[in-house]
Amino acid sequence: MERHGFPATFAGMMSAFLIWVVHFLAIYGINGLVCARGLDALDLFGLPLPVALVLGATAAALLLAGAVLMGALWSGGPAPRASDDPRRFIRWFTATAAVAALVAILWNGLPALQVPACG
Asked: Are 13 and 98 in contact (CB under 8 A)?
């Protein structure tokens, strides 16, 4: 059995939240730059530039967080009991964090479709 140290295990458990943080910073950075530079009138793929960029960042973050969720659900194999093997808790926590991150990513990306970026 391959053993990982605590920092690697903890980073894996928190990876979905790290994806959400990067997404959060990206969408606010995109809106800040677009509004500061006056680029909100430009179009990309038939959508206003900030909307297209935020939707792209949201799609990428959803795919990554979904991959974390699938990896947590399909990893390892059965662990006997949570008290006997911490792998079961690690998989459970990682999957739960991934679901929470998916909801948070959708919640942060939703305003791009509802309100103008520089309104």
From this structure: no
Expressed as residue numbers, the domain containing 84 is 17-114
Which candidate, 103, 88, 63, 107, places its Cα nearest to that of 13?
Answer: 88
Is residue 91 in a domain? yes
Torsion angle of C-alpha atoms 112, 113, 118, 119, degrees rounded to 10: -140
Which tens digit of pLDDT belongs to each residue from 49-108? 888 999 999 999 999 999 999 999 987 655 555 566 778 888 889 999 999 999 999 999
Side chain identity at residue 102, one-letter code:
L
Considering the entire predicted model, what is its pTM? 0.85
Are 100 and 16 within 8 A, CB to CB? Answer: yes
Within 38-118, residue ranges assigned H as helices are 49-74, 86-109, 111-114
Q: How many domains does the chain have?
A: 1
d(CA 48, CA 35): 12
Measure Cα distances from 107 to 10, 49, 100, 104 in Å: 25, 20, 11, 5
